[in-house]
Amino acid sequence: MHARIRTSSIVGMVMTMLATIGVSLALAPPAHAEVISDIAYAPAQPAGSRGHLLDLYLPSSGIGITPRPLLIWHSGSAWSSDDGKVGAAAIADIFNAKGFAVAGVSVRSSSQAIFPAQVHDIKAAIRWLRAHAGDYQLDPNRFAMMGTSSGGWLTEMATLTGGVSSLEGTIGTTGVSSAVQGGLAFFSPTDFLQMNAQNLPTGGLNHDSPASPESLLIGCALQTCPAQVALANPLTYVDSNDPPLLFLHGQADFLVPHGQSVLLYNKIKTSCGKAQFISIPGADHGLSWVLDPARFGTQTSYTTQNCAGTTVVGSPNPTWDTFEGFLRGALKMGTSCQVAWAPTVWDTGLTASVTITNTGTTPIDRWVVTWTWPGNQHITVGWNATVTQTGAQVTARDAGHNAVIGASSATSFGFEATYSGTNAPPPEFKLNGIVCTRVFG
């Protein structure tokens, strides 16, 4: 059984969580039309626990496109909590407004089950969400995951282990892909065996202790069971076919050494994978540290693709807009665009050619162009796209053969329409939910 909650009943909770994870409170009202809480994606193990539940936050009608991309969130707790979906309300308040659906997912704590149970759980949740994508207008081909600390570790494991059968598990929905198409991880542990050696000169946690969070996750003191620890190391699964991964880490992190992300970046680079690593001087462990505007311009961004890396100091700033751009690129939705409008008009009608140029650096796979007529134009037929109109709102979807638009490439479609009276051109075109530069052909 799960509950549907309207936006007005969760505003207070959203404001509390925004403050908790370090998000500015100076935001517009929540953009979620509906919250569906406590969906059981698998049976409770043990009975009465919460590590089998997820909450789903759906954008308001008219925001973004349908089907919607999905962002899966898990809050870190050093694997000590089975309520990792807490915190998703604040993330949804940001990303619903950008057209993303958001799912907050809980998994079992280390006291309830040791590794790999947590990976089995997140994969079961992803399979459930994909199997039910049609019920909630989710795009099953555009799933991404985000998390902090141990939630970042879970994000990296989910992102880097698509197709690893030994980590699928058998709980919940089966027979559906558990892959995600991108990941965004904050200050995550990776190679537990090296954490003590990477601690700050001023000290840090004793990760090798039998009572450390990492040892409790694995079920043994780390240095006594290196083979088991290796199976929980995201680096073990890195290869050139992995989806893009963005991760951030503070250089002054006391709880999870900054070197853990350095190891991951270097492994992805040598494996010819796709990653961006943003390293922030002076930042400790927490979103309020790595997203602090006072540190903007001091960060170093390392990017690797096609076996080559680049290093940029001072850009991009670690902001939610930067993260949206990464996610849109990873999900092949497009990050910037231009639309050329070339009509031929007569007394009662027009034909128009519309050329879409992908001005971003990542390919677009499947597109939707939307606009609103300022006059009383009405579409009668379209070509090279499925063009539909409801009132003044027009939606043009790719025709399949022209679904992919490479970086710095273009595709075109056309239509015929009738009108009477005014025939002003559309003031704005959006491609997959983002505003395009408009030019006249």
From TrEMBL:
Alphabetically ordered keywords of this record: Hydrolase
Entry GO MF terms: hydrolase activity, hydrolyzing O-glycosyl compounds; polysaccharide binding
Transmembrane domains' residue ranges: none
Entry's Gene Ontology BP terms: carbohydrate metabolic process
Domain CBM2 span(s) in chain numbering: 330-439
Name of a matching Pfam family: CBM_2
SMART domains: CBD_II
Official protein name in the record: CBM2 domain-containing protein
Native species: Acrocarpospora pleiomorpha
